[in-house]
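Before our next group meeting I need something from you. Please put the record directly below this note.
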Amino acid sequence: MAGEEVERGAGRLVRRIGLGLLLLAGLAAWQGLTGVYQLNPGEAAVILRLGAYARTEVREGLHVHLPWPIESRDVVHVGVSQRRDFGDVEAKEGDVLAETVMQTGDNNIVLVEFFVQYQIGDPFKNRYRVAESEALLGEAAQAAIREVVGRNTIDGVLSGRKDIIASEAEELLQTLLDRYEAGIVVGDLELQDAQAPAPVRQAFSDVIGANQDRNRAVNEAEAYANEVVPRARGEASSLIAAAQGYRDAKIADATGEASRFLALTTEYQKAPAITRKRLYLETMEAVLPDTEKLIVEPGTASVLPYLPIGPAAGKAKP
């Protein structure tokens, strides 16, 4: 009896151990199948615990979470840049997409074709804050570009302000997506083409060409003005400087002459005869060096002989 009891106890223990090992093996297999996963570069995993958000794993490599249904994961591609195109300005008149036709601020119709490049910035928001992120992106992009186009004239949309319009629309689109908590990061928004409707396209092309000709003429005129005006100002400054120098010289000469005359007047008043004699001698000294002089002593001849005086003297032969 005792031996049978021991054998039955040993059998129960073996069965319990086997059941425990089997349970552990099942748990390990369950964990391995539902709780172990691999993240590749550019991937992120949103971990939910009993349906509620727990965390986001972004590190690449092997990861482990509690087995399903305690925890589950949703792998999202976050490092991949995606692109979405809008509009087609080259479509036939009856096939023009509604997203292509827009109204400008001056109540004209314009056809706009653009694209948006984006990537997932917040995996949890992108998966669980919005129901259809792609549809939301499309609606927000069209709303942003239409609002910005509606603030500009058709001339600005067709030619001069394309880059500015694209930049403003990109900023507005990102603001809208952040407000909706879409978890999308806009990388670029660019206007590929903008044209007037086909019936008036040639007229608008002529207007744009005329505006370009006008701008070219204005630029050429400004370039000519920038070349001529500085040169004219330089010449004017040179003439003004020369005139000022001439004026200053004349004033200085006149001032010197006036001072000399006043000094001579003072000396003449002191000694009129001497001053008069000195002035006469100084005048003769200044005049005589430039003239031919002939001195004849009185009483040496009763008749003045012919002498070669003046220009003829240089031609006379001995």
Notes: The domain at 82-196 is CATH 3.30.479.30 (Tetrahydropterin Synthase; Chain A).
